[in-house]
Amino acid sequence: MTEVPGCTVPQELADMIINHLDDSQSLQQCSLVCKSWEASSTVHLFSRLSWPPCSVCWVRPAMRGVCDCPRHTLTFDDCHDFLLSSHRLRAVVAHLRITGIRGSSGLPEVEGHEPLPLTFLFTLPELLPGLQTLEIWDLRTGAGVMGPPPNLSANPGSLDKLILAGTVLWDDRAIFSILSAFSHIDHLVLECYSSEEDLEEDIPLASQLHRRFPCTSVNRLEVLNPSYLTDVLCCLHEQLDVSALREVKVHLCLGKGLERLIASALSLEALTFMTTESPPKLPNPAALRVLDMMCSIMADDPEEQPDASQFCKFGWGEMIHNLAALHAPELRELTLGVMLRELGYWAEDAGISQEVFAEALARRLQEEDWGTFRAIMSARPKLRKFKLKIVVNDGWTSFQYMVPYLECSARTFQDAVVSCLGRDIESILEVVAEHHYNTEEYMNYYRYP
Q: Domain of life, per the record (predicted)?
C-alpha cells in the first residue's frame, strides 16, 4: 500500500473509507485532510448535483414552490457559471437534477417558473463530459425551453438515463428540444402527475422548438400516467429513432400515441402495459422476448352486496385474450400481474374472513376461459420464466390487514394457474404478492410464499 505524505493512513484504505461515506459533512471533512483525500472526496461530493442547491427543495418536494431561501432563487445561468468556474467539478458530475420552479424571496407563497435556456441545455454534453443521468423537473407549459440556440461543435451527447418529470403539464416543444440535445439516450422516463385542475387550465404554449439532432436514439422508454401526456406521446415518434427502441414500459394503458410508436418498433424486445380491449400491434412479433401485462380486479363491499359475485370488475379474462392475440413465438419471460383494488372493504371493519374472500375469488376464477390460457402456455415452448404477481394498491388501508388477503389471493391464483402450465412448475412459476402504499410511492412489504 502507498502512504500519503503527511498522512498515516494508506491511500488504498483511505479510498475504501471515503467510498463508503454517504453524508456530505463527513466527505467535506475528508476533503480537508490532504490533496489526495480531496480528490477522492470531490468525486462523491459532486458526482450528484442538484440545482437549485436547496435541501428543502429536494428533500421536501411539496415545499419546492414556497421556499424563499437564497439558494432557491439561483437561476440556470447561475448554475452554468458555477460549473464553468471549476474544470475539476465538471469532470466528476455524473448525475444532474434540475427544476424550473423558483421561490420568491419577497413572496414565498408565490410560485415562479423559470424557462430552461437553450444555451444551458445544448451545452450540457460538452460542459459535463461525464454526465450519465439527467433529471429535469417541472417545466410548466408556457415556460419550458426558451432562447436562441448557442454555437455548438458537432460532438454528439449521450445519456444513460433522462427523466422528464413533474407535477405540472409539459408541452411537446419543450420535451422535443430537450431530447434533441442528445443523440443517444439509453433510458427515457416521462413522468407527469398533473391534477385534473391542471388539465383544465388554458395555458398558452410559449416554448420554442429547437432541434440539435433530427432524431434521438432511445433504447428504453418508460411512461408513467400517459393520459397526462397525450399530445406529447402522439408526436413522440417524430423525434425518436424508433429503430433503436428495444423496450417500452407503460404503467397504465398504452393510448394511441404509444400504440403508434410500438407499431413502428421493429426491434422491440420487451413490453409492459395494462390490458385494454385490444392489445397493441407488433410489427415484428418474433423479436419480443419479455412481456409484462397487468389487469385490475375491483372488489364489491361484501356487506352491502352479500349475494353478488363480490367482484364488480374482473380483468383476468381480458388479459388472457390480450395475451392470445399477441403472437410471440420467441417469448422467454412472461409476467401476468393482478391489481386487487377497493380491498379496504375487506379489512378491519368488514369482518369478512380470508377464507370467504378466497372462496369468492376461486368461484369467480372458475368462470374464466382456462382452455385459452392452457393453449397459450403450450404454444410458448421457449418460455423459461413465468411470474404471477398479485398487487394490493390501497394506501388508506393498514398493511397488517392486507397481508392475509394477499396470501390467500396468491394461493388461489397459483392453484388455478398451475394446472394450465403443463411443465415443470418449480422451474417456471414464481408467485409474488406485493403491497403498494400508494400510486406515487412504492413499498414492497410482503412476498409470497
A: Eukaryota
CB-CB contact of 366 with 418 (8 Å): no
Q: What CA–CA distance (Å, rounded) separates 220 from 186?
A: 6
Alpha carbon distance 204, 214 (integer Å): 26
Task: Please name the residue ranges forming H helices in 236-390.
Answer: 255-262, 316-325, 354-365, 370-378
How many other C-beta atoms lie within 10 A of the C-beta of residue 284?
A: 12
pLDDT at 313: 83
| pLDDT score, position 184 | 94
- In the predicted model, residues of the chain with pLDDT beneath 50 are 1-6, 15, 18-21, 27, 105-110, 195-200, 439-444
Determine whether 119 is exposed, middle or buried from the number of CB atoms within 10 Å of its CB (0-12, 13-18, 19+): middle
Report the alpha-carbon distance of residue 180 to residue 133 in Å, rounded. 16
In three-state form (DSSP H/G/I as H, E/B as E, the rest C), the secondary structure along 313-346 is: EECHHHHHHHHHHCCCCCCCEEEEEEEEECHHHH
pLDDT at 11: 57
Helix (H) or strand (E) holding 433: strand 429-436
Question: Please, are residues 179 and 210 in contact by the beta-carbon 8 Å criterion?
Answer: no
What residues are paired with 433 via a beta bridge? Answer: 390
**Among the listed residues 193, 76, 201, 66, the one whose alpha carbon sits nearest the alpha carbon of residue 146:** 76
Shortest CA distance to 139 belongs to which of 110, 106, 109, 168?
A: 168
CATH tag, 1-45: 1.20.1280
Round to whole Å and give the CA distance between 281 and 44.
Answer: 46
Query: Is residue 281 a contact partner of residue 258, using CB atoms and an 8 Å limit?
Result: no
Domain spans, the chain: 1-45, 47-268, 285-449
Alpha helical stretches, state H, 123-271: 124-127, 172-179, 196-200, 230-235, 255-262
pTM comes to 0.83
Copy the grid coordinates of residue 303.
Answer: 356487506
Please give the backbone phi and psi of residue 416, each rounded to the nearest 5 degrees, phi first.
-70, -35
pLDDT digits (tens, 9 = 90+) for 158-209: 999 999 987 666 777 888 889 988 999 999 999 877 644 444 455 555 677 7
What does R_g of the chain's alpha carbons equal in angstroms? 26
Per-residue model confidence (pLDDT) at position 372: 92
